[in-house]
Backbone:
């Protein structure tokens, strides 16, 4: 594993954990954390079934570091454009994670933190977590984050929460489609998900993840062709045949 300044990365059996590790700032983004997350998700090991993204300390991620934002406010348009692109590339790299990506959240999930859970396949939340696209409160716009969040929630919810900047609870986050599970204790649910994933074929899960990502990018004709090609590939793989035979022999 690489040495990171603001990440904790470790493997337990077939699960990789990536922890945001700036607890003194509620794991707020700065340029180093953005770069390290991009590197970490670009160099995932092959012998895992999933990645768990979490936050050290009392919050998952409270958005952008205000000192960093102040520096960017004093920078040129071109420097800000480059910075925004690097943040978009980070989210794009995370969303294209070839394995199941689970976010385990608690405390504050604000601004850029909403982008992280929007890129995740499964989101498990502590019941006391607080969520919000709070950029407008600083006179900013959830521009980069919206690219990913708008795929998770419908236009009506986006209009309300992007424009008001209000902070809402975990049950509301679940209602609008950001969160899948809201719990008093999240570890047992994580273990349950791990066990469910272990029942699946690794290749089948990777192909399904590719399918889900491609469906967002293609025209209807392309989607049909891609779906046909994907199921044909999955059916012809050794893994699928072995698992079908095993199931039939039960």
Residues:
């Amino acid at each position: 594993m690489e040495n990171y300044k603001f990440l904790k990365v470790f493997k337990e059996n077939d699960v990789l954990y990536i922890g945001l590790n700036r607890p003194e700032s509620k794991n707020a983004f700065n340029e180093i954390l953005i770069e390290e997350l991009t590197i970490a998700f670009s160099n995932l090991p092959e012998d895992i079934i999933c990645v768990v993204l979490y936050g050290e300390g009392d919050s998952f991620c409270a958005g952008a570091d205000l000192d960093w934002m102040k520096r960017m406010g004093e920078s040129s348009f071109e420097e800000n454009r480059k910075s925004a692109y690097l943040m978009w590339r980070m989210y794009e790299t995370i969303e294209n994670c070839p394995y199941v990506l689970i976010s385990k959240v608690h405390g504050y999930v604000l601004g850029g933190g909403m982008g992280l859970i929007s890129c995740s396949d499964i989101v498990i939340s502590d019941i006391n977590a607080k969520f919000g696209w709070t950029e407008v409160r600083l006179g900013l716009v959830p521009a980069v984050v919206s690219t990913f969040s708008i795929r998770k929630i419908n236009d009506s919810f986006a209009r309300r929460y992007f424009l008001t900047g209000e902070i809402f609870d975990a049950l509301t986050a679940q209602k609008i489609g950001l969160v899948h599970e809201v719990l008093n204790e999240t570890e047992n649910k994580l273990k349950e998900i791990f066990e469910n994933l272990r029942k699946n074929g690794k290749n089948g899960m990777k192909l399904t993840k590719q399918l889900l990502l491609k469906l967002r990018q293609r025209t209807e004709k392309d989607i049909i062709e891609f779906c046909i090609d994907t199921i044909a590939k999955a059916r012809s793989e050794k893994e699928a045949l072995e698992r079908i035979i095993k199931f039939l022999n039960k």
